[in-house]
Amino acid sequence: MNNASILLVDDERTILQLLQTVLKKEGFTGIETSGSAEEALALCKLKTFDLIVLDVMLPGQSGIDAAPFFRQLTDAPILFLSAKTSDFDKLSGFAVGGDDYIAKPFNPLEVVARIRSQLRRYFAAKTASGAMPASAPDTIYDFGRFQLYKEAGELVVEGRTVACPALVFQLLLFLCERPNRIFSKRELYEQVWGEDAFNDDNTVMVHIRRIRERIEADPSNPQYIVNVRGLGYKFIKQPITDKDLRPV
């Protein structure tokens, strides 16, 4: 999925740079940018893209007006970006072939999460139709409340894709692959960050907190990633629930 070809279309250079930087940090490599709908359409005639992020308010032809022309060239998902957030504006985007509608200002990690979700559906549909060969199945770690898709780099909590920065994802994956084992902060830092730990406990603590904020129903009372006093952290594959505590 991370080798997908993505086209970003926006006339604000800062937004293009922000999205490009975040996508690259999250492992995407095939990214191209354009400042107008006309230029983007010309690119689509020359190259196949797997997903298009399209600003609505563009100089010249707007994203809404250009969408039907994109649809003549590609069936790739189109994610609209817009400061217009009324229901009418959103429905207009979907009516002309958009697959998602993201309001400005936005959290760039939310955009990445939505891009991953759309690409996953797009590639699954392509594979099912025979338009592309089936790839090796994604490794899925399913813990009931949340699922971790290893190859896709995707975290799904209660059915919703949750934005997850690269190192947060890598730390969670490391723990999920080694349930019920205790790791010290030093061990986690050296294994996940790949560097010697020099009393850098705070980095691990911050990332553990970020994981808990994503996967735990109550981050202050964690059931999946627990502290073992004086030893470190342990991932519980089957967390204790209230039902488990009932007398028999």
Explain how this protein is built.
- The chain is an alpha/beta fold and 248 residues long.
- It has 2 domains: 5-129, Rossmann fold, CATH 3.40.50.2300; 140-238, Winged helix-like DNA-binding domain superfamily/Winged helix DNA-binding domain (Arc Repressor Mutant, subunit A), CATH 1.10.10.10.
- 40% of the residues lie in helices and 19% in strands.
- The protein contains 8 helices and 12 strands.
- It has helices at 13-25, 37-46, 63-73, 87-95, 108-129, 166-176, 185-193, 201-215; strands spanning 5-9, 30-34, 51-55, 78-82, 100-103, 140-142, 146-149, 154-157, 160-162, 182-183, 225-228, 232-235.
- The strands form 3 sheets. A 5-stranded parallel β-sheet has the order 2-1-3-4-5, with helices on both faces. The chain has a 4-stranded antiparallel β-sheet with strand order 6-7-8-9, with helices on both faces.
- α6 crosses α8.
- The chain is elongated, with a radius of gyration of 21 Å.
- It starts with a strand and ends in a 13-residue tail after the last strand.
